[in-house]
Amino acid sequence: MNGTKKYFTQDFIKFFKELESNNNKEWFNKNKPNYEEFVDEPFNLFVKRLLEILCKLDGTIRINASEAIFRLNRDLRFSKDKSPYKVFKSALISSKGRRHKAEPGFYLEIGATDIKISGGCFKLTPKQMKHIGNNMHLVNPIISKQTFVSYCGELRKTKSSLTFETLLSSELVSSDELDILILTHWQIMLPVVNIFKEILKQEKQ
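RE: above sequence
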């Protein structure tokens, strides 16, 4: 997991701070060159780097960066908030990519304030939730360990998700060891993610 390359500068944070106050197409179009140079291109390279390492840890992950990274444009169809853009860049890394949120995997979100590092199941059916709930004894010994809790947090459960989440300061975005930091969290989560995969495979049988 060696690597000391800096992917981002503080201009990444600056862009999103300004976008939060100017979330409109006119401002975005005017500042699109900054978005492409300081946000989009480095984020794509960063996710590509994360995928290169993760595929060595989990051979089922063979997607490319474009299959993991979400668009910056918000889906406004069912939202009262008509702001056109998200104020963060994000990616969902799993064996099936961002379009298949039921597949256990890893999520990264970087905005003006926080770096969100998550792992688990992000959108399950009620049947899948019940099946994993009936098999939590398989992961409880792992997720109760102090090392796991200190890195990954406690289990966060909604009606359709089971995830672990850590928030770090976005000031770390310009660290030349950001990839190592994120991958360390994900590597600790990996055994749980793999168990979730196996449980869901059994549910389909």
